[in-house]
């Protein structure tokens, strides 16, 4: 069966995917939900400088240390940059990439360059020190401040980043005015993506966990399932 590695988005740890991990394992797959540097452990721990490269290193080091191959690498939100960077550094070891309402970066892009001005302003407004930015209101109490440098640093990608057997994208259309609609439109235009559309907000594990579980299973098992659920196009919140 498949080896699945899941990377959470900003402010979150591997715990975000805990509602579906047992089901994925019960289906016979090896499953690892990672917590990136600075987003786990004691809340008051003094971390060294952390940027996007740090988090890409986290994923690459884990896959190399565990000697994983033929990996189904999944990322949510900011985690899209992390899995793209890891795939670029691990040619031949990633079988499938699954972007769950995630950024699908081109070389030189960052969270900062792809977010709207209002969203960028929130990063600054929610930063107490210019080093981290606090989670937005309404997220899980376990969420942690996220290092700002991760959102600012441009990613560097070569030809290996998307040279995998399968590329899939999930658009959570409940946040219709968010940045991921533009990502959806771009991957559709590229034509070589498996695209799913689901009617949940960006915090997709809150209400959409079972669908995301099934999308991950379909990706891992290389089944042709597609989700194209009616979307609330007037929705405006994540």
List keywords for this structure.
238 residues, six-stranded parallel β-sheet, Rossmann fold, alpha/beta, two-stranded antiparallel sheet, 8 helices, disordered C terminus, globular
Order of helices and strands: EHEHEHEHHEEHEHEH
Identify low-pLDDT runs. 232-237
Helix residue percentage: 25-40%
Which structural class is indicated by helix and strand composition?
alpha/beta
| Name of the level-1 CATH class | Alpha Beta
Q: Superfamily at the CATH H level?
A: Alpha/Beta hydrolase fold, catalytic domain
Average pLDDT level: 93
Q: Give the terminus-to-terminus CA distance.
A: 34 Å
Q: So, CATH architecture?
A: 3-Layer(aba) Sandwich
Query: Could you say how many structural domains there are in total?
Result: 1
Record the strand order, biggest sheet: 2-1-3-4-7-8
Number of strands: 8
The whole-angstrom Rg is 16 Å
For this structure, the CATH topology is Rossmann fold
Shape: globular
Number of helices: 8
Strand content: 15-25%
Textual characterization of the structure:
- This protein has 238 residues and is an alpha/beta fold.
- The protein has a single domain, classed as 3-Layer(aba) Sandwich (Rossmann fold).
- It contains eight helices and eight strands; from the N terminus they run βαβαβαβααββαβαβα.
- The strands form two sheets. It has a six-stranded parallel beta sheet, with helices on both faces.
- The chain is globular, with a radius of gyration of 16 Å.
Concise synopsis of the structure shown:
This protein has about 240 residues and is of the alpha/beta class. It has helices at about 20-25, 50-65, 80-90, 110-115, 115-125, 150, 180-190, 210-220, and strands at about 5, 30-35, 70-75, 95-100, 130-135, 145, 165-170, 195-200.
């Amino acid at each position: 069966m498949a080896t699945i590695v899941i990377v959470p988005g900003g402010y979150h740890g591997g715990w975000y995917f805990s509602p579906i991990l047992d089901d994925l394992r019960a289906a016979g797959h090896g499953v690892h939900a990672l917590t990136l540097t600075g987003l786990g452990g004691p809340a008051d721990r003094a971390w060294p400088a952390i940027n996007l490269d740090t988090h890409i290193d986290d994923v690459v080091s884990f896959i190399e240390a565990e000697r994983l191959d033929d990996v189904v690498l999944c990322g949510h939100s900011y985690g899209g940059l992390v899995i793209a960077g890891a795939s670029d550094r691990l040619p031949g070891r990633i079988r499938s990439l699954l972007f769950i309402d995630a950024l699908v970066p081109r070389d030189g892009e960052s969270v900062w360059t792809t977010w709207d001005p209002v969203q960028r302003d929130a990063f600054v407004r929610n930063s107490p020190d210019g080093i981290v930015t606090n989670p937005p209101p309404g997220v899980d109490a376990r969420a942690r401040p996220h290092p700002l440098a991760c959102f600012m640093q441009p990613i560097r990608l070569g030809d290996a980043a998307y040279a995998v057997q399968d590329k899939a994208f999930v658009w959570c259309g409940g946040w219709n005015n968010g940045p991921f609609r533009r990502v959806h439109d771009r991957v559709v235009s590229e034509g070589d993506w498996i695209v799913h559309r689901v009617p949940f907000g960006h915090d997709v594990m809150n209400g959409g966990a079972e669908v995301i579980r099934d999308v991950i299973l379909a990706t891992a098992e290389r089944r042709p399932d597609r989700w194209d659920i009616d979307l609330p196009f007037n929705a405006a919140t994540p």
